[in-house]
From TrEMBL:
Cofactor: Zn(2+)
Membrane spanning residue stretches: none
Gene3D superfamilies assigned to the protein according to its UniProt record, in alphabetical order: LmbE-like
Top-level taxon in the UniProt lineage: Bacteria
PANTHER family: N-ACETYL-ALPHA-D-GLUCOSAMINYL L-MALATE DEACETYLASE 2-RELATED, N-ACETYLGLUCOSAMINYL-PHOSPHATIDYLINOSITOL DE-N-ACETYLASE-RELATED
Species classification: Bacteria, Bacillati, Bacillota, Bacilli, Bacillales
Protein's recorded name: Bacillithiol biosynthesis deacetylase BshB2
Xref: NCBIfam families: thiol_BshB2
Length: 223
């Protein structure tokens, strides 16, 4: 990965950054690139409360906020923005309002690269709505001045419809940071790590491939 002027990451939930792009974030930080993570919600509607449970529905937003801050610290994110939207309602937000929030971040930060979800191919309605807002904001910028837009997709039909990912980042040098960032979201990931313990210990090839490879699609704007 080349050094960027500034990387802006926009996702709706705490832990969205950890699973798919934390190695890429850590690599950019290692390169000396400033990174801003704009997280739209606190994931307060998440179903997991830890395993065994260690929090309550009422207290979950506070827990997830602290987990997000811990993960950001692990990755070296210098600028964490919590935007205060409500979990599982992003698809119902006024589109112009949401687009303007993203446009404000772009105007302030002048990023050379933005990372978000590929709208329509990211499974969760909050994911798709967030990606769509980022696309609308970038579309407002003249084509020659637009930052690069790298999108995460993982729906079953994504490769059939938008092709193979055209960006593959091997993040092996920062794999431990990625694992630490995922672990930081303890309320959501503790059971997963319990289930994967032996595979991680033995460096199972499939698990290691999932950890060390992060893939993106460059968003294709209509001409």
């Amino acid at each position: 990965m080349e050094k960027e002027r500034h990387v802006l990451v926009v996702f709706p939930h705490p832990d969205d950054e950890a699973f798919g792009v934390s190695g890429t974030i850590a690599s950019h930080v290692k390169n000396g690139t400033p990174v801003t993570y704009a997280c739209l919600t606190l994931g307060e509607m998440g179903r997991n409360m830890g395993n065994p449970p260690f929090t309550t529905r009422e207290n979950l937003p506070k827990i997830r906020k602290e987990e997000l801050k811990e993960a950001a610290g692990v990755l070296g994110i210098q600028d964490l923005r919590m935007l205060g939207f409500r979990d599982k309602t992003i698809e119902f937000e006024d589109e112009e309002k949401l687009t303007n929030v993203i446009s404000g971040l772009i105007n302030e930060l002048n990023p050379s690269l933005i990372i978000t979800f590929y709208p329509g191919y990211s499974v969760h309605p909050d994911h798709d709505a967030t990606g769509a807002a980022v696309v609308r904001a970038v579309e407002k910028i003249p084509a020659a001045a637009r930052p690069a837009l790298h999108c995460v997709a993982f729906s079953n039909n994504c490769e059939q419809e938008i092709g193979e990912p055209n960006i593959l980042n091997n993040i092996s040098p920062v794999a431990e940071k990625k694992l630490a960032a995922i672990r930081a979201h303890r309320s959501q990931t503790e059971q997963m790590f319990n289930n994967m313990a032996e595979k991680l210990k033995s460096k199972d090839p499939q698990v290691m491939k999932w950890i060390t490879n992060e893939r993106f699609w460059t968003y294709r704007f209509e001409k």
